[in-house]
# Entry
Amino acid sequence: LGRPFRVTGVVIEGDKRGRELGYPTANIPADPGAAVPQDGVYAGWLTVLTPASGAPAYPDPLPAAISVGSNPTFDGVDRRVESYVLDRDDLELYGAKVAIDFVARLRGTQIRFDTIDDLLVQMKADVDGARTLLARD
Ligand code: FMN
# Structure
């Protein structure tokens, strides 16, 4: 393409677990028939194309760690694209139309972890990886 691969969609409510875990995520469903990168974890940028009504505008692309998959640790079924915007738990994104630009793959699969602590250790490593990668982007 010569530029990052982009997926767009409207942010829906997830299982509201992310905030408790310390990593709130903006979820967009993977439409059947749409091209979405394979399951895994990626570094990339989230851009708010149209804010939800009443929500602030976020004009700049925001650095993110992006998970694609069904969250096997929690026996999830639906495949989604979930973005954790680095160091931002103040964002109001439900109902916003967003674009996700995939820059690099950090790992090629989602893992079914035995404990939530194990998931959190891996998520921290992913976030650190995304931060390093995007800082030199
Ligand atoms: N879920 C998994 O089951 N396995 C994973 O390997 C995994 N890796 C993730 C990596 C990152 C960087 C992020 C942001 C999420 C990852 N997840 C993974 C998804 C989390 O399980 C999910 O974000 C959390 O359960 C919150 O879901 P919710 O937004 O529906 O509340």
Observations:
- The radius of gyration is 14 Å.
- The first strand starts at residue 5 and ends at 10.
